[in-house]
């Protein structure tokens, strides 16, 4: 369990409460195309309104690189939040984020009012965690609440620096839920505990593999990262994704799994293509059968069955990363099969954000999972066993 103070441990009546949310939502021509992150932030915001706080929201959106970029303004978020909350969210348009407009908006607040500040990354200090902006943010509030799990693995002004200048810094409900699910899964899993890893970035997930091998009963590896394991075993991988430098590491992990008695599953067949395209020629080949000049883009039908079978009796499953280049329909079957397998079982199922979360939601299996993380990178660092700076900065219980 999380040993940090939360919004349940403080009294915010009449106080100015700065809440760091994760409103980093996809926008197309000023329209929000996926509002999951807004919905996920509502419980904390509603609680603070109900308790009579003056609720000042802040977040980053995209990468404006330290200067105002109108297309990355949080104005559309204020509009949608107003609808979702059923009460006005005043947007404090301000190129300095905490400039005269924001200060005036906060000064005019009554208990239970909500103000949203402009994109924190309009300020160049934000991602460098420099004091000037941390102090500006702190000057607006009496209490700080961090509910932005998606950036918890970064130390920025708006989630870490600001806590140096505010006495009370706690976590919100979303942060608490994320950490409780991920933390419980990793530290006190109901067994059998199975982890499924996929995606392209082999090197970024290699420390996750190492840490999870100490915790799980079964580790499943699919997606582009599997080919480094194939190559390590001496198989032909054609033009598949491969990180040569990590072949020895893959062998070490195979050995570690043996030593620990962990079942390590890698694909037994592969969908290969002669081009990185949905229109490419396709073949299914068995273990070691990838042809020179061809690339593996999905797990094959036998592997889909093998992986589904491996989670059938699991009691805890953590999944991070697609099984293939799932954005192209011809290479999405493996990812769909894993999503379906998890939807069908009676277990705590945790989806580690990013592509796997998108896949699960698109397939309509969102409601069948125990928890879909709002933070891809943050959930991965958590699974690596790292302390997240955004969490560490909150007051201990
Ligand atoms: P990551 O950000 O590391 O989780 O990787 C996600 C990306 O990996 C997605 O865009 C997938 O299309 C890609 N991916 C997964 N498997 C493969 C593969 N076999 N070949 C190429 N790309 C892949």
Give a written overview of the molecule:
It is a single chain. The strands form four sheets. The protein has a six-stranded parallel sheet with strand order 5-6-4-1-7-8. A six-stranded parallel sheet has the order 11-10-9-15-16-17, with helices on both faces. The chain has a three-stranded antiparallel sheet with strand order 13-12-14. The termini are close together. The chain folds into two domains: 168 residues, 3-Layer(aba) Sandwich (Rossmann fold); 202 residues, Rossmann fold, CATH 3.40.50.1260. By secondary structure, it is α/β, with parallel strands linked by helices. Helices cover 34% and strands 17% of the residues. The model has no long low-confidence stretch (mean pLDDT 95). Helix 1 packs across helix 2, helix 7 packs across helix 8 and helix 9 packs parallel to helix 10. It is elongated. Helix 11 links the parallel strand 16 and strand 17. The protein binds adenosine monophosphate (AMP). The site of adenosine monophosphate (AMP) has 16 residues, from strand 14 and helix 11.
Which key phrases capture this entry?
six-stranded parallel β-sheet; Rossmann fold; single chain; binds adenosine monophosphate; 34% helix; 2 domains; 397 residues; alpha/beta
Q: Give every kind of bound small molecule, once each.
A: adenosine monophosphate
Q: Helix amount, in percent?
A: 25-40%
At CATH level 3, the topology of the largest domain is Rossmann fold
Strand content: 15-25%
User: Strand count, sense and closure of the main sheet?
Assistant: 6 strands, parallel
Structural class: alpha/beta
Poorly predicted residue ranges: none
Q: Which homologous superfamily in CATH is the superfamily of the largest domain?
A: Phosphoglycerate kinase, N-terminal domain
Strands ordered across the widest β-sheet: 5-6-4-1-7-8
Span from first to last CA?
A: 11 Å
CATH architecture of the largest domain: 3-Layer(aba) Sandwich
Instruction: Write down the overall mean pLDDT.
Output: 95
Treating each run of at least 4 consecutive H or I residues as one helix, how many helices? Answer: 13
How many DSSP-defined strands? 17
**Mind telling me the CATH class of the largest domain?**
Alpha Beta
């Amino acid at each position: 369990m999380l040993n940090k103070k939360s919004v349940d441990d403080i009294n915010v009546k009449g106080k100015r409460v700065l809440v760091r949310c994760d409103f980093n939502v996809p926008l197309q021509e000023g329209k929000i195309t996926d509002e999951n992150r807004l919905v996920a932030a509502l419980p904390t915001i509603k609680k603070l309104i109900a308790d009579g706080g003056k609720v000042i929201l802040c977040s980053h959106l995209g990468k404006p690189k330290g200067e105002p970029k109108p297309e990355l303004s949080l104005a559309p978020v204020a509009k949608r939040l107003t609808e979702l909350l059923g009460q006005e969210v005043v947007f404090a348009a301000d190129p300095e984020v905490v400039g005269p407009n924001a200060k005036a908006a906060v000064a005019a607040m009554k208990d239970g009012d909500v103000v949203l500040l402009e994109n924190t990354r309009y300020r160049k200090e934000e991602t460098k965690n420099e004091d000037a902006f941390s102090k500006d943010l702190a000057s607006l509030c009496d209490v700080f609440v961090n509910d932005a799990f998606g950036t918890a693995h970064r130390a920025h002004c708006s989630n870490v620096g600001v806590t140096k200048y505010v006495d009370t810094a706690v976590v919100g409900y979303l942060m608490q839920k994320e950490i409780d699910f991920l933390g419980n899964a990793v530290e006190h899993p109901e067994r059998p505990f199975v982890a499924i890893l996929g995606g392209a970035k082999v090197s970024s997930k290699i420390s996750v593999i190492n840490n999870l091998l100490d915790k799980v009963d079964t580790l499943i590896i699919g997606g582009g990262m599997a080919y480094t394991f194939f190559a390590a075993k001496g198989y032909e991988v054609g033009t598949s994704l491969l990180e040569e430098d990590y072949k020895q590491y893959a062998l070490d992990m195979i050995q570690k799994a043996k030593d620990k008695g962990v079942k390590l599953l890698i694909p037994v067949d592969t969908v290969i293509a002669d081009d990185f395209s949905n229109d490419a020629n396709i073949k299914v080949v068995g273990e070691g059968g990838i042809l020179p000049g061809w690339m593996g883009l999905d797990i094959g039908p036998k592997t889909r069955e093998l992986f589904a079978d491996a989670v059938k009796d699991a009691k805890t499953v953590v999944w991070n990363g697609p099984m293939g280049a799932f954005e192209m329909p011809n290479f999405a079957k493996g990812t769909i099969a894993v999503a379906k397998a998890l939807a069908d079982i009676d277990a705590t199922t945790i989806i580690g954000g990013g592509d796997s979360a998108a896949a699960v939601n698109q397939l309509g299996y969102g409601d069948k999972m125990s928890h879909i993380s709002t933070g891809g990178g943050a959930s991965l660092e958590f699974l690596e066993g790292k302390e997240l700076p955004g969490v560490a900065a909150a007051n201990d219980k």
